[in-house]
Amino acid sequence: MKLQALQQSYANRGRSNSLRGQSPLDSGMDGGGAVKSPAGIFWLILHCLCCLISLVLGFRFSRLVFYLLFSTSSINNLYTSTTTSFGSATDIAESLSFTTSLRRLSPPVVNTTSAVTSRVVVGRHGIRIRPWPHPDPVEVMKAHKIIEAVQREQKVQYGIKSPRTLIAITPTYVRTFQALHLTGLMHTLMNLPYEVVWIVVEAGGATNETAALLEKSKLQIKHIGFEKKMPIFWEARHKMESQMRLRALRVVREEKLDGIVMFADDSNMHSLELFDEIQNVEWIGAVSIGIIAHSSRSDEEDPFEVHQTMDEEDETKSPLPVQGPACNSSDRLIGWHTFNSVIYKGKKANYIGDMAIVLPRKLEWSGFVMNSRLVWEEAEFRPDWIKDLDMVLAGDGDDDIESPLSLVKDASMVEPLGRCGKKVMLWWLRAEARADSKFPSRWIIDPPLDMTVPAKRTPWPDAPPELPSDTQKVSGSTTQENTEKRATKTRTPKSRRSSRGKRKHESRNADARVSARHSGERIKL
Amino acid sequence: MGNLSWGFILLVFSAFFLNLDAFELRKGQKTERISGSAGDVLEDDPVGRLKVFVYELPSKYNKKILQKDPRCLNHMFAAEIYMHRFLLSSPVRTLNPEEADWFYTPVYTTCDLTPNGLPLPFKSPRMMRSAIQLISSNWPYWNRTEGADHFFIVPHDFGACFHYQEEKAIERGILPLLQRATLVQTFGQRNHVCLKEGSITVPPYAPPQKMQSHLIPPSIPRSIFVYFRGLFYDVGNDPEGGYYARGARAAVWENFKDNPLFDISTEHPTTYYEDMQRAVFCLCPLGWAPWSPRLVEAVIFGCIPVIIADDIVLPFADAIPWEDIGVYVDEKDVPNLDTILTSIPTEVILRKQRLLANPSMKQAMLFPHPAQPGDAFHQILNGLARKLPHDKTVYLRKGEKVLNWTAGPLADLKPW
To answer: Which stretch is the leader sequence (chain B) (predicted)?
Structure first.
């Protein structure tokens, strides 16, 4: 950078000196003072004349003249040809000027034998351009293979030495946003270079819906049904999720799965670096979670009200949206950062789909990772400061523990990961639709929607203005239907815009009377 | 009883050797030992193998020049200043000139800078001449050998030819008074006037702390295939191209400017060092002179250097096997650069990266302060030590004179 500028301006200075000096008429004067003698003026005029001629001709005329006037027949073996892509006139002039310069240089070199002289010549060379100066796809593919090999080697050298299996535990249930969240998590897990065992615990029993979604991944999945329905209130939902995770831990215990257990909630966002980092865990570790407390705009309250109260009360302690281990300066765990939910008192969401901020619990499960041997039955696999899983659950009675910290007797033995919690590699977000919102089963629209929008060129026999009035009636009727059928989960085709009477659709539900009415009107053919 | 003891000794020996092998293998997995034509000499310690006497020149030759322009400490020719400082406090220094093997003259010839920071070499020959006159008149050691056991650091563009422009430098040739001395220079090109037989080529100075502060974790995958930042056409001095870099840089641009594998441009990004660490190959083409600090940067950042400079002599060529570490491309083969680079077998590329990862390789390219073992200072001393013992012909008979003190252009003979 600086060096380039140095070189550039330096060469600038050098070359400008030299360009003046290279004209054979001025070779003597190297930036010396201008002498206003008749001889000097004569040379100056001659020089200008030669410059003008060069301008007209397009090449260095002066060198050509010099060569023709002063050249001898011997062109020594320093002459090498250069291939250029320039025109022929300049070719000749260049090669000639090139030998001229060589001639001037030859006196100091001619004493030595020709074997010592360099095959590299000073002077102007051509710029070699190949006939098709564009990328060759075969070369590009080879280069990509090379890059892949280099990266693989880097991973072997500097990456994790012996990766352990990842056991991801995810509680889920069928709802509108399930496909959204689960697809994201599924793709994250599919992208990992490690072995993954994915334990998916589903509230409300194992359904085909979820199974179909999970089938698309090529992962090793244990799909477990949990025979209770997911409650609508957030508090209850959090509790139930803990129970589901414990159920999964029991599976790990029974099947003696070996690896690293992490709690991947389906709506969390994981970065791939997280999975590399958690390979470093020995027994139980904690990572920092970024809390994205989603606040939707609501009509009742001013969205800025929250911020105002924040300014007034907690100017010194702003809510750190990160939950995780806190360390002192020597990187030892001294405490926990938890989410400050005090400021959100009274403004938090109570039920799923509520138009308010969804808050996390004090310490989320997903911020903890542990060695699967902690939950195995045999006590010899785990250190003394880990409690046995069964005893923990029996003690609490209601099969619910708030966070994995209840499993350890001594919370200071938890390892802080991610540069002692300074690196946030995972984000917590709870965005859900209302509990009763509708979505097509498996997100496959079957039967196809009856909404048809006419193409511009298709000649419809009916006049277009009838369409808007028709839709009014249809939408009005369907809202009524919706209010009736709010409880059902299955998709009901909302509107039946008639297909211009060309086709009569067989309606398959209770809307038949409504649609029949419409189709009755529309049949004209 | 004898059998038992033999068996026991054998067991111990085998365990010992097996362990040794295992250790070497583990070490060898990441890096490989570097042995050039002089052998495995990068880690040699010069202390005890040679003695250097540093002449006490008046400060107008060194300190005063530096005081006038402290920018000399940061540019790529700063090796001469740092070498002086290193020698002053090094254990190879001796205060007794009678036992010295080599004699060092601390004269900073590349410290006359333009306002832009570029060194002007016009006074350097006179400065050097004046320094030699001083040492030859005040001490008998110069006349004893006419400088054959003296060494000088001349890091400028074309070494002791003392000019930045190649044609002029060739015309001038090496300063006549330095014909017998050993020159330590950055310039190296085979069969060139300005490279004397027996010179030691060194890397240009690159600021070590600056480079260390830009290191990124080695686990970050290398995703750039070829990387280069710099000029292709020197628009100020050579607008049509063809002179600058003998047309090689312009050829690189014209052939590969739209190639996605080649990340080349004239920008000056702030992430230059980090980008080099994400590249597999780094181009090191010649400029106005064949050497450049890019080679040092490529070695430090583990990027395989692609050297495009015909007949170039790279630093410490007898200690470092550059053909095994870098890729040489002839200037005439530049249009086929992509074919050349992609046809290198993967094992060869991985081996080159292993060699580059060797810490002694990286140390050998740096001039850290304070000096560390294995760095460029020590490699220079190693090179000087390898030239010992001096040949008998080095010592001249009484009255014998080889050097011509009046040779050279008239302007150089003026006192400084």
So the answer is: 1-22
**Interacting residues of A393 by C-beta distance below 8 A, sequence separation 6+:** A246, A399, A401
CB A132 within 8 A of CB B258: no
Q: C-alpha angle B313/B164/B147, rounded to 5°?
A: 65
Query: What is the rounded CA–CA span in Å between residue A294 and residue A321?
Result: 11
Q: H helices within B79-199, ranges in order? A: 79-88, 124-138, 141-145, 166-172
Residue A305: partners with Cβ closer than 8 Å, 6 or more residues away = none
A469, containing H or E segment: helix A466-484
**Once rounded to an integer, what is the mean pLDDT over residues B258-281?**
94
What value does the CA radius of gyration of chain A take, rounded to a whole number of Å?
Answer: 40
Kindly report the CA angle at A103 between A99 and A105, in degrees rounded to 5?
Answer: 115
Task: Kindly identify which residue of chain B lies nearest to residue A152, measuring between CA atoms.
Answer: B221
Which of B31, B32, B118, B231 is the best residue to mutate to test the A interface, defined by the most A CB atoms within 10 Å of its own CB?
A: B118
* pLDDT value of residue A484: 43
Euclidean distance between CA atoms A289 and A287, whole angstroms: 6
pLDDT surpassing 80 at residue A92: no
- pLDDT of B25 > 70? The answer is no
Q: Which has the closest alpha carbon to A63: A30, A22, A28?
A: A22
The shortest CB-CB distance from B272 to any of A1, A140, A151 is to: A1
CA dihedral of residues B295, B298, B300, B304 (deg, nearest 10): -120
Q: For chain B, which residues make up each domain, given as ranges?
A: 6-30+207-363, 44-205+371-411
ipTM computed for the complex: 0.85
**Contact status, residue B108 vs residue B392, Cβ threshold 8 Å:** no
Considering the domain B6-30+207-363, what is its CATH architecture?
3-Layer(aba) Sandwich (3.40)
Contacts of A122 in chain B (CB under 8 A): 166-167, 170
pLDDT digits (tens, 9 = 90+) for A324-343: 888 888 878 888 887 766 66
Pairing outcome for strands A368-371 and B150-153: unpaired
Q: Are the C-beta atoms of residues A234 and A361 closer than 8 Å to each other?
A: no
DSSP string, A223-282: EEEESSPPPSBHHHHHHHHHHHHHHHHHHHHHHT--SEEEE--TT-EE-HHHHHHHTT-S
Cβ–Cβ gap A157/B30 under 8 Å: yes
Between A125 and A116, the higher pLDDT residue: A125
Enter the tokens of residue A236.
């209850």
Tokens of A114: 């020709």
